[in-house]
Write a structure and sequence with these properties.
Strand content: under 5%
Largest sheet: none
Distance between the termini: 48 Å
Structural class: mainly alpha
Number of strands: 0
Helix content: 55-70%
Low-confidence stretches: none
Radius of gyration: 21 Å
Length: 314
């Protein structure tokens, strides 16, 4: 007896109306998921940079007596609770995508598992967020919260590429052959991007903007780790410029060309923001822009590495 025949008739009628191929709605949901994960990074940054990290002083409630923020908590409570609410919106998007993929859960197991992972991450992120609050904004826990968000940006990027048939087993287009050197080069850029983000977390934990006036710091040398953090950034820049050089040298067209240009644009933007904040007293607005840039960097490097891997070698 098939799985479908064991379901109640009402459920069978519902599932019969769901897509049997990857349609426009599924693709749009994948993009919405990527946008949502990126926005979550920005709102999480707003919580910390406005000293709203303890705007809701406890967890899972916002206060000991209220699930939501109260007027007495002011703007800090509003910002912190708003960031918590965004996770529910992301959960809804991931759950909706799983519903739309139900009839494709075996055929497109790649999409189904990525969407399932994004949904499963929501309660995990909520728990880490709760530990963050209950630990008084311990910088290492705050950093872990941010790194999980970066990982989710990576998964959401892969979800978009798979949903649009750009990469993976179900590619629906032919990619231009690439020189063999680009595959390891783009993988290295993606790895260095992850290392740069992890070191950025250490720098952030040593610097200002702790999320609350009484939040602890990691007591490391901020200036030293800022320079260490710059090393993988230089390597990312070199790898991105090398990719663009190879693209022009071999007159490569198509999605990888766009991905290489995007990598350079994001890398240069991050460098400009990084140097600006370093030499101007680390203003909160620039730190927030750098966090957004980190999410864009992880997405762009993942996309470039994914396309390089999927492209034939010449």
């Amino acid at each position: 007896m098939s799985t479908a025949s064991r379901l109640p008739k009402t459920v069978q009628r519902f599932t019969s109306k769901l897509p049997t191929d990857v349609n426009r709605t599924i693709r749009r949901l994948s993009v919405l998921s990527l946008i949502g994960q990126t926005v979550l990074v920005v709102t999480g940054g707003a919580v910390r940079l406005t000293a709203s990290g303890l705007g809701c002083p406890t967890w899972p409630r916002c206060t000991s007596d209220s699930l939501v923020n109260t007027p007495e908590m002011g703007i800090h409570g509003f910002i912190e609770f708003g960031n918590r609410l965004l996770t529910f919106a992301l959960a809804a998007v991931a759950a909706l995508m799983l519903v739309y993929l139900w009839n494709l859960r075996k055929e497109r197991r790649d999409l189904f598992l990525l969407a399932l992972g994004l949904l499963a991450s929501i309660p995990a992120q909520a728990v880490i967020g709760g530990i963050t609050v209950l630990s008084g904004l311990n910088p290492w826990v705050v950093g872990l919260h941010f790194l999980v968000s970066m990982a989710l940006v990576v998964f959401a990027t892969l979800l978009v590429n798979r949903a649009y048939g750009r990469t993976g087993r179900f590619m629906n287009r032919s990619l231009v052959p690439l020189p063999a050197v680009l595959r390891p080069a783009m993988l290295a850029v993606a790895v260095f991007s992850a290392i740069a983000v992890m070191l950025g977390v250490v720098v952030t934990g040593a610097g200002p903007h702790a999320g609350d006036a009484d939040a602890p710091r990691n007591d490391l040398d901020w200036d030293l780790f800022s320079h260490i953090h710059a090393v993988p950034a230089y390597l990312i820049t070199a790898g991105s410029l090398f990719a663009v050089y190879v693209v022009f040298r071999h007159k490569i067209a198509g999605p990888f060309r766009t991905a290489a240009h995007l990598m350079v644009a994001v890398t240069v933007l991050q460098a400009v923001i990084g140097f600006t904040q370093y030499y101007n007293g680390i203003p909160a607005l620039m730190v927030g822009a750098h966090m957004l840039g980190a999410a864009l960097l992880m997405s762009a490097s993942t996309n470039a590495a994914d396309l390089a891997k999927a492209s034939p070698v010449k």
